[in-house]
Write a structure and sequence with these properties.
By secondary structure, this protein is mostly helical. The chain is 81% helix and 0% strand.
Length: 32
Amino acid sequence: MNDAPIKPMIVGSPFMATWETHWLDLSCITRD
């Protein structure tokens, strides 16, 4: 749901990229 505004913030950030993986995983569970 809130992954849209976060994606552009992760670009160019290896640390955030890893965090995105967790966020997407949580998002998938929340949506389902």
